[in-house]
Amino acid sequence: MTEYEPVIGLEIHVQLATQTKMFCGCALSFGEQPNTRTCPVCLGLPGALPLPNERAIHFGLMIGLAVDSELAPRSIFHRKNYFYPDLPKGYQISQYDEPLCRGGRLGDVRIHRVHLEDDAAKLVHAGSSGRIHGSQSSVVDFNRGGTPLAEIVTEPDVRSAAQAREWLTLLRTTLRQLGVSDVNMEEGSLRCDANISIRPVGESALGTKTELKNMNSFRFIERGINAEVARQEGLLEAGDIVTQETLHFDPRTESITSMRSKEEAHDYRYLPEPDLVPVAITTRMLDDARDAMPELPAAREERLEGLGIAAANARQLAWRSELGDYFEAALEAGDASLDPQPLANWVCNELVARVGEEDPAASRVAPEALAKLVGLVDAKDVTVSNAKVVLDRLVADGGDPAAIVEAEGLGALGGGDDALDPIVEAALAANADAAEKIRAGNMKAIGAIIGHVMRETKGRADGGEVTRIVREKLGV
Amino acid sequence: MSVADPTALTAAGAVAALRRGDLSAGELFDAYRAAANSDELNAYLWVADAPAAPAPNAPLAGVPIAVKDLFCTEGIPSQAGSKILEGYRPPYTASVVARLAEAGAPLLGKTNQDEFAMGSSNENSAFGPVLNPWDRTRVPGGSSGGSAAAVAAGSAPWALGTDTGGSIRQPAALCGIVGLKPTYGTVSRYGMIAFASSLDQAGPLTRDVTDAALLLGQMVGHDHRDSTSVGFPGQVDTPSARRLDGIRLGVPEELSGEGIAIDPGVLASFEATLKLAEQLGASVQTCRLPHAPHALSAYYVLAPAEASSNLARYDGVRYGARSEHEGDLVEMYTRTRSESFGSEVKRRIMLGTYSLSSGYYDAYYGRAQRVRTKIAEDFHAAFADFDFVVTPTSPTVAFELGAKTADPLSMYLNDYCTVPMSLAGIPAISIPCGLSDDLPVGFQLAGPAFSENAMLDAAFALEQAIAFDASGARTSA
Questions:
Q1: pLDDT-derived band at B476, boundaries 50, 70, 90
Q2: Most buried of A233, B127, B247, B371, CB within 10 angstroms?
């Protein structure tokens, strides 16, 4: 059986968070009554003319800077012509061979281009499935029509569904950091299609690709890609060929159905938009875009590593911006002596395990509280295992870690005070065999002693301290 | 009322009479409304009721204006001469119409036109042809045929038209009036139902050059709603030149000699005017526009291409006609557009779609754009040595209704002399220069971009010298 590798390119549409639409002054719509955010321009009435949105271009430039694209000194809009009821002019104003941004890279995926265009209106089909097939009639809501979109197209550098998902997370974090979009898949401000082909491992020629659409969450993107790769593998294994077509992924059944074959593919008859003049980037526009750039994930990752944080933690904090923000708030709130790496570890592991995908800032654990807790562990005032208990309390009820330690008697024993000494004595006495083995040089036997001490102290003893006292007493 | 026949006054004359108090705006409007309502040339598709009184110092003092059907006028049918927009009432008014109304030129009526501005005879209207007031068996020219006929017949003091390849200038020539196509971008296109976006321009159709300047002055200026709009440098002056001393006129070999079938009568009138110009002190020499013979071909690739895209919105979904026939989406689209577009419109949509289609774009649209640049460069080079390029406006005088409808190409050739200026985006004016077989002949001057003032001055001087008698067109009051 031949081993195939998937070759995947992603096409992402991002709704830009401007005040008004791409080519008219209508305010962007968030669930208003249908057809209440319209005007002659976005309705495509006879005689109306488009007017480009300056802020959308500004956001487009910021996206280009974030992915290290070449920003075109001069770019133009093109008309993409086709007939559909959600396209009032019978053409979309987009960009064709002179886009705003060319090339670039984000993480380990190269960017092919970034361009601007306007969104189609929303079609609602009256029928049981909500899809066009089998519906009795359809109506159009033009509120959405004209919303500014940035289209980001990658090179086919993605090699697995999992990588696609991970990279999209990085993209989403980056766009959110930029403040150019809400990037919310459920609300439709982030949409992603995949171009998928497979080829035998080791080959460099590309196989026939299909376009997979309608995956409206990262989870479905991963599943959709996996399903399509499997389907293509099945075809090739059976001696069939992959046909170039546009496919629809149904997340409920995970089935893939054909939308359009190559023969039915649109000829968009692109022509330069005669109603708009070219976009010429001025120094001022570039400066404004640069000045507006926040710290991006890659830069943040590097900076955090510079603080002494382990690479894996730095990446996690940089790529999930709420996590990174929380960490930096905790670091800020903590003592000057607080070591960033253990704090990072606690945020990335223990805290994430307890808050999951939610924003930790929305939890009951205040950043200062976590910082304080990590400080207590660092000072050996509480053992790691008891600190986890404290964290559970913080997650449930909030509050101050020192107070919780005090109230529940979770303070560590050892580390200078004499409370541990008699307990270790008693443990050695109760485990004479183990004591003998230790004296003979077998340090593994210390486990029994430590276990005894832990039981007696209800986990409050510091393991390292116990070991030290045992060695001292037994002279090893 | 101390003015016996208000409709006999030029627009400038009417402004003066209104300011003197010899005439009230209401009386003037009523006289024109009556004339428009009794129009027998089919020039009007809609006539207004009495308007509001003009603002006290409005520059145009209340002289009403007839407006080509394709200008959106809020609440008033704006159909671009097409069945697909029959009865369509826009929710807004075109910028230039609003500007003129504010300047004191209220809407008199909407005039008939070739459908979507596609035509040179006004025989392509879904609402019937317009008749030439000089001879009702003949066409007035197109596509602004209704506007031209109304002004020539005296049922409007002046009118708005649009010119894409000659649609103001050619009907002005055939109707014996003045028609001006301004520099592309100087008049806002917002609210003009589009035919070919990179070529369409609104302009005045008037009885004389003075009126053209007066109207143009209130039309030009930057409009932020039109991205292709540019400001006009300074203002439009009242023309006053009496002589043409020092003016260099260039007669392009390509547009007026052998190689193009110009009526002998038209040529004679044109050459007589050149002699007149010399007597006024101008120098007249041949010039070269080497790529001009290709202008018509380039135009009939570019304009239909843009039109095929601009007219895609007429699909029966949101406004205008929708086919009654039951069927799915594609059937609705197909039937609506087949039933409600005229044949010339369909022809151009097909031509345009073809020339933009995959595999053909470079050979047709791409190439036509390059030819267009060449033509613009030809004019630019000519204007280094000449102040104006002059040609007959139209190769013929008004032809009979039905004479050219069987052969689209023969109809297209009417624009031979006007299309090059449209492609170059430069201003051009047509003034009546004589008669041939008792029918008017038009003389065209074209100048560099933004040279309207100099051009109007030169046209004025010639007009005074020609002293054209337009009474052959006037309907008696």
A1: very low
A2: B247
